[in-house]
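Regression test attached.
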Amino acid sequence: MTGQAVNNNPMDAIIIDHLSKAFGDTRAVQDVSLTVREGELFGLIGPDGAGKTTLFKMLVTLLLPDAGRATVAGRDVVRDFRALRTMVGYMPGRFSLYPDLSVEENLSFFATVFGTTIEVNYDLIREIYVQLEPFKKRRAGALSGGMKQKLALCCALIHKPAVLFLDEPTTGVDAVSRREFWEMLQTLKKRGLTILVSTPYMDEAGQCDRIALMQNGRILAIDTPEGVEHLFRKPLFAVKASDTYQLIQDLRKAPFTVTCYAFGEFLHLTTKEGVSAASIQQYLIEKQHSNVVIKPIEAGIEDSFMALMEQ
Amino acid sequence: MKAVVTNKLTKKFGDFVATNEITFDVAQGEIFGFLGANGAGKTTAMRMLCGLLKPTSGEATVAGFDVYKQSEQIKQVIGYMSQKFSLYDDLTVRENIRFYGGIYGLNRTNLKAKSDAIIQQLGLGSVADKLTVSLPLGWKQRLAFSVALIHDPKVVFLDEPTGGVDPITRRQFWDMIYEAAHRGTTIFVTTHYMDEAEYCNRVSIMVDGRIKALDTPGALKQQFGTDSMDGVFQILARGTSTK
């Protein structure tokens, strides 16, 4: 066996061991290994096409791996698929409830399929479901985006799964609803649920206990959010000036620059070793920039992700 | 001349007021961020400005054309791109460019020159005759943006153009937006990435059909006493979005 050794503690909620899946020439998931501990909120962070959904589908027994193996809650995803299906909650990226059924009907449908009732596990979903209760007679298809998301989460929880899989629950959702959704996940985590969640939004990574950065079917890094930030080793400065457009042009041409990208209000400038803020300032003043602000900063998740992508 | 002017622009669907007396203007060459929670009325407002939906009341002009009487002229001088609708997957890169150029009435010589320019600019030479479906998402988005600009529109409407792409591609996309604005094209953009709101010259934030705030990112942060646009957005949109 090649690659890093995999921790095979049977208590781990998810063990992924050199898992691969290809569709024709597209190698969607390539030799992925990672472990999610029981009770952990684990984030799979990466853009569209990174392989997040393919990995999820293999873990919830909807796709067969080409190579490698994985267990979820101690069950093999291939051999024990029947048993496993009753033990996982899965919220796919695309809305997949019945639009013609009401909120209430969708929930009781999913409860019945898993051989339980809404009442038995109501405690687990109560905090989320109370927000839906005023609309319980409404067809699911007529709900707002944020409400659909909450209902989908309730349906994925109603059989009290051991592990919850959430595939891009916040994609296309506004910043306020996204924050509310993460608050719900923190509450569920406190109840001891293991959660694997994927997202393309780097700013959500900080909400997770540990994260894996994923790109083109491969894992770029696995660590705590802070650990991933510390993977960034080059000098990094935040820079701003009155004319942002011209500032980007000039900094990218500067002899000391490695990369220069827009980051909100500031540009993030990665430089060669030994470059001082004063020398950057001098360069920009020569280029006629005004209101220049330069400060050395610590890297964020997104800086690290971009640096890892470029390696 | 202002690129977009609205005055108490309103759209009702039955009893529901989707867009409620919104009044704002956008200068030529400005990057204007049009933010709001899901369901706040952004799409309805945008559809009215694109000449696709008749307002219930109020006034609006786009590039000087009236949204009630001159919607056909509006369609000729605007570009539009969204994450959902952009290119035909089963046409090649070159065919997509030719198709959209043809729709906007570019002549053969002009179309040839434009196609070559776009393909060269985006570095798509090696895949120009490949089906668009085979391109990585980030390439598709940049191609879709170039295609939306093929007829040199006065105003380009971008509806969540960067969803789901990697952080480097997202920034390369904004480089293209900056360049287009630098050349004088007006950019009207919606996004859920609050860091992208910082890249706009001015930003409006819609809540429940109304514009609750409109200013430069710097002034908005000062007004609401927070250091990020996410902070501004949370203050304005929180509490109302779940109702």
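Expected vs. actual: identical. Chain A touches chain B at residues 46-50, 131, 144-146, 171-180, 200-203, 215, 244-245, 248, 261-265, 302, 305-306, 309-310 (CB under 8 Å).
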